Amino acid sequence: MARASILDWLAASPVRLAPMASYTNVPFRQVALECGSGFTTNEEIDAEALVRGNAWASRRDAECDARLGIVAMQLLGGTIETMVPAAIQLVEAGAPIIDINMGCPVAKIVKRGKGAALMRDLEGTSALLSAIRRAIPDTPLTIKIRGGWSDTDQNAVEVARMAQDVGVDAITVHPRTRAQQYAGRAPWDVIGDVVRAVDIPVTGNGDVTSLASARRMMAETGCVSVMIGRGALGRPWVFDGAYEALDRPAQITREAVVIERHLKLIDEYFNPAEALMQAKKHLMHYSNGWPGAKLFRGELFAQRTTAEVRAAFMERMQPLRELATA
Ligand SMILES: Cc1cc2nc3c(=O)[nH]c(=O)nc-3n(C[C@H](O)[C@H](O)[C@H](O)COP(=O)(O)O)c2cc1C
Questions:
Q1: What's the gap in Å between 285 CA and the centre of ligand 1?
Q2: By CB count within 10 A, which of 54, 55, 225, 269 is most buried?
Q3: pLDDT digits over 159-168, tens only?
Q4: Same domain, residue pair 269 and 207
Q5: Does residue 278 share a domain with residue 173?
Q6: Which residue's CA lies nearest to atom 23 of ligand 1?
Q7: Which sequence positions are flagged as catalytic?
Q8: Around Cβ 325, how many Cβ atoms within 10 Å?
Q9: pTM for this entry
Q10: Are residues 297 and 222 in the same domain?
């Protein structure tokens, strides 16, 4: 896979789905792609567990399947011993891009030197990224970073320059620090600082909830592409310009088609227990903000199969949605 192809992939469809653990699996990524998302990133994969052959490893080939479009496989880890073999394994399974998670803020993750902890150890992370670069010389290698560790330790620009120097091909910046987690407004100016500091393409991320706000982020910061995370949960049509142009009743009809499609893909992809959990999780988001949502959620959790979950949504939630917009 030519490393330069990442430029074409970013340019082809610059607004895309952000990685979200236990959400951005194959069915949701596929729905997002069908709604117009650019290439997607899978949920973080723990390199150590992958190398040991964890449960996810049995799905590895399906997750990397080229028929599902370009996907950046994101690795979480902190050592060369685990990250290099994990990256090689994913490339051999067909992963078109390897992305390194340098932003996960969760305490038990950073305590083990993974996620956002990589931003605190410039020397060690430079060695880690160099080793991965050497191991997969022809595959696009990207990183996803935060603004820094804390208010007093904001080093996104330094980290980005180091990454460029060791041959990383593109960077995503979620500008909140690790200490901010997901609170407060994302300081977009940090994205602009990184854009000005490096020559490789920069994707911006944080608080984007529409194509209009994605365009605003690109205009304000100079980033070449934008990732949408929480704004796409329960709203994968956020990537769809044609949907945006519809009137409200037509949008509601379109949303129902997308939700049905998502449920079908969930059913096809997961075993029944996982499928039920995924269907409930996503339908919680799909029902967000609608009249009757609270009652519906109670009902949702009582269902025992995805067919029942689907019926509950279509027979009760969807008419309420149509009524609210009539
Ligand atoms: C539930 C959840 C799970 C997430 N999991 C990941 C992950 O696996 N890898 C990652 O790089 N970022 C992860 N993130 C961070 C998002 O990719 C994104 O950077 C963050 O939500 C800010 O963007 P947003 O304002 O568009 O949501 C996660 C965020 C959420 C809310």
A1: 15
A2: 225
A3: 999 999 999 9
A4: no
A5: no
A6: 206
A7: 104
A8: 13
A9: 0.95
A10: no
User: Looking at residue 323, what is its pLDDT?
Assistant: 77
CB of 175 closer than 6 A to ligand 1? no
Q: Which ligand 1 atom sits closest to the C-alpha of 43?
A: 8
- pLDDT-wise least confident of 128-132, 208-212, 227-231, 315-319: 315-319
From the CB of 144, is ligand 1 less than 6 Å away? yes
Same domain, 206 and 75: yes
Q: How far is the CA of 98 from the centre of ligand 1 (A)?
A: 17
Confidence check: pLDDT of 214 > 70: yes
In a shared domain, residues 156 and 49: yes
Residue 221 or residue 325, greater confidence: 221
Pocket lining: 20 vs ligand 1, CB cutoff 6 Å: yes
Q: Are residues 108 and 122 part of one domain?
A: yes
Q: What is the tally of structural domains in the chain?
A: 2
Residues ≥6 apart with Cβ < 8 Å to 39: 9, 10, 13, 16, 69, 70, 71, 72, 96, 97
Could you say which of 240, 259, 292 is where a domain stops? 240
State residue 63's pLDDT score. 82
105 lines ligand 1 (CB under 6 A): no
The CATH number assigned to the domain holding 11 equals 3.20.20.70
Distance 202 CA to ligand 1 centre (A): 17
- The closest-lying atom of ligand 1 relative to the alpha carbon of residue 208 is 26
- Give me ligand 1 centre to Cα 18, in Å: 6
- 1 pLDDT tier (thresholds 50, 70, 90): low
Tell me: do 141 and 40 sit in the same domain: yes
Domain that holds residue 311: 246-325
Q: Are 106 and 234 members of one domain? A: yes
